[in-house]
Amino acid sequence: MNKRYVKFLIFASAVTLVVLLSAFSFTSMWKDPPIVPGPGVTEIRMLSEWLPQLAGTKSDTEVYVIKGSGDGGRFLLLGGTHPNEPGATLAAVVMIENVSALMGDLYVIPRANRSAFTHNDAMEGAPQFFSIELPDGSERVFRFGSRRTNPISQWPDPTIFNHPAGTTMGGSEISNLNRAFPGREDGLTTERVAAAIMNLIRQEGIDLVVDLHEASPEYPVNNAIVFHQDAAEVAIMTQMMLEMEGIDIRLEESPINLRGLTHREIGDNSDALAILLEVSNPSQGRLRGATTEELVTTGIDKFYLQASKDGKLFAPYDETGYSLDLRAARHVATISGLLDSWNMMYSDRMIVLSDIPAYQQILDKGLGAFLSPIS
Ligand SMILES: [Zn+2]
Predict the structure, then answer these.
(1) In this structure, is residue 28 part of a structural domain?
(2) Domain membership flag for residue 22
(3) Which domain holds residue 86?
């Protein structure tokens, strides 16, 4: 064997090894970290049931149904509309793993844009995974994904996104699920996901929809209940309830012309009341330092501390950061307040859930205490 041939063999083997390792790391991102259905979960359905074209694609996603023993209203909770907002996903997972329904039905889609969980936003340096420690010392791992659908599921985006309501947006917004509502059944993948969720809302007779999000601390719509005008009374009552608990939350009415967002399009295109919740997340903002797993879970960042001292933020911030526990606890407490308000106003369609972890409990024990170990 001549020397050149040996060199070539060594080089080819090294390239093959790198390619195999990269492929393994790449495809590992397509696997969903487990969610453990709690005692209240009565069915796990797939979103493609409401739009068969999604079956077998990376955008088909689990719908956890928690049915009550008594008749009542129907509530849809969306997490993971933006998979780079982990407080939203975790709040949805905590509901799935803990609550039961006494009256009415709860539907939870924890990975609404499932394809967007399978990659990261380019140039953001975000971690692919983060983990939460449980009281028994084990860990639960979750994906930190992207704001947008994976280009493997949807490519190329158009130069301009002509929204069906008549407004135009930058082309990439067509892969942002929170701009693609009410969706098109024959549209691009993200629009199909939106259309499937709209079909679920109409066909299941959903009364109330809450879409969970997180926002950069420097973004003005923060720590807020964003409400469609039809949901104004429920939102206002919830704010009053949360203030009694010492949770400061602002109210933002959904602008009529801001199209494609869940709080606008679900409210306009169905009988459901639509609400979107925001909570402050430093790992998502533009002022942050290194985007580590620690920043995602603790929210501690010296640059945000400085920005807070300079009065540039729209959410309280100090050296204790803004932890994932706090962010998810705020969401869970707001959901609880919204349901109490709903039940006061719509006593003919009550939605009564048990075992919703209390705000202070989550802060005291940490999120890990409300997640089940993987057996
Ligand atoms: Zn968001």
Answers:
(1) no
(2) no
(3) 50-370
Distance, CA 18 to ligand 1 centroid (Å)?
A: 35
- Note the pLDDT tens digit of each residue in 150-194: 999 999 999 999 999 999 999 999 999 999 999 999 999 999 999
How much distance in Å is there from the Cα of 212 to the middle of ligand 1? 7
- 6 CA → ligand 1 middle, Å: 53
**178 alpha carbon – ligand 1 mean position (Å):** 7
Q: With 90 as the cut, is the pLDDT of residue 117 above it?
A: yes
**Chain-wide mean pLDDT for the chain?**
96
One-letter identity of residue 138: S
> Is 247 domain-assigned?
yes
Report the separation in Å between the CA atom of 85 and the middle of ligand 1, taken as the mean of its atom positions.
6
Position 63 pLDDT exceeds 90: yes
The mean pLDDT value for 325-333 works out to 98
